[in-house]
Specification:
Layout: E1 10-12, E2 17-21, E3 24-29, E4 32-37, H1 40-52, H2 59-64, H3 71-83, E5 87-89, H4 100-118, H5 122-129, H6 134-159, H7 165-177, H8 181-190, H9 196-200, H10 206-221, H11 223-234, H12 242-247, H13 254-269, H14 275-280, H15 288-316
Antiparallel strand pairs: 1-5, 2-3, 3-4
Helix pairs in contact: 4-11, 4-15, 6-7, 6-8, 6-10, 6-15, 8-13, 10-11, 10-15, 11-15
């Protein structure tokens, strides 16, 4: 797994109940069940691990008490428990929060760390090398058409919250500058022969839809996390867009590249990659709870994006899969 665990001394949340039957362990918590399957020694080791999740042991301390387990083995189980909302932080801390700018810089550091940890994705390697099939180029554009469309639509509910004037002004300006960027990607795809109906009615891949759903959920329920993840999608104004540069080496219609370049240049010139910084600069104080949640959501978004990129490569490199995907 590529998600990073945030907790220093993880603890199973209070109020859980552990039920064992056959070769399964069930963790019951607030009406939900999380099932762990295994046999003999494996299941007994899991029980030892669960008993160690008392808020007093670090990941390294837990690993030392589990013979034959690596740090990665322990981390994988903890991440699954965390994704089921079963973990909390056990270590008390004197941390009293931080400024918004301090937090967003930490978010950017976490994103870079996760990218280095993941390494170059299959789709990036193919695009940059010049060996990508045209299906992959077009498929990638189809998937990002959906992300761009849903991302813009998510800004509106995020704007509905009560913000100080400067923060609301920054978010509104971003909304206006991002308006109908999905139309640019549609024009790009129409340049290679796809109809407007095919583009609009196309169905995104599951992990693309997962990214879109995360954006929508954050915008509606957690505006701080929504503002924090925006920079991930907008590129860095001081870096050349490798994707657009890579497209230039392929024998595709000029307009396919042109409209995507326009989209990229709007983001670059508008310094949209700094929008999260601009928004968080208006926040004087972030609580410890908000910080943990936002960093965790950065990790979840990055993990989902990595899975999206891999699924795009796997699907569109296979010539037997339909393009576009239609119901």
């Amino acid at each position: 797994m590529s998600t990073t665990l945030i907790f220093k001394k993880p603890k199973l949340k209070d109020g859980y109940k552990l039920v064992e039957y056959d070769n399964n362990l069930e963790i019951h918590y607030k009406g939900e069940e999380f099932v762990i399957s295994g046999e003999g020694e494996d299941l007994s080791q899991i029980k030892v691990l669960l008993n160690l999740l008392n808020g007093e042991n670090s990941l390294e301390m837990i690993q030392e008490k589990l013979p034959g387990w690596t740090i990665e083995d322990v981390n994988d189980v903890l991440i699954m428990l965390d994704q089921a909302w079963l973990l909390s932080e056990g270590e008390s801390t004197e941390f009293n929060g931080c400024s918004g700018l301090e937090l967003i810089l930490e978010c950017e550091d976490l994103q870079r760390h996760l990218e280095r940890q993941k390494g170059e994705t299959k789709i990036t390697s193919a695009l940059v090398s010049g060996n990508a099939d045209k299906r992959l180029l077009y498929g990638f554009a189809f998937e990002y058409y959906h992300v761009t469309s849903r991302a813009h639509g998510s800004i509106a509910p995020a704007l509905s919250y009560l913000y100080p004037r400067q923060r609301k002004s920054t978010l509104r300006k971003f909304f206006v500058e991002e308006y109908r960027h999905d139309d640019l990607i549609m024009k790009s795809l129409m340049a290679v022969g796809f109809s407007e109906a095919e583009i609009v009615n196309s169905v995104s891949l599951p992990y693309t839809n997962a990214v879109c759903n995360l954006l929508s959920a954050f915008a509606n329920q957690d505006p701080l996390s929504f503002m924090a993840v925006l920079f991930i999608f907008e590129g860095k104004p001081w870096e050349e867009d490798i994707y657009i540069k890579s497209l230039e080496q392929y024998d595709v219609p000029d307009d396919f590249v042109k409209y995507q370049r326009i989209h990229s240049e709007i983001n670059q010139k508008g310094e949209h990659g700094l929008v999260s910084r601009e928004l968080f600069k208006t926040i004087d104080y972030i609580s410890p709870e908000d910080k943990i949640r936002i960093l965790k959501n950065i990790g979840i978004m990055m993990d989902t994006l990595f899975r999206m990129y891999d699924s795009i490569y796997d699907y569109y490199q296979n010539p037997s899969n339909p393009l576009p995907r239609l119901i």
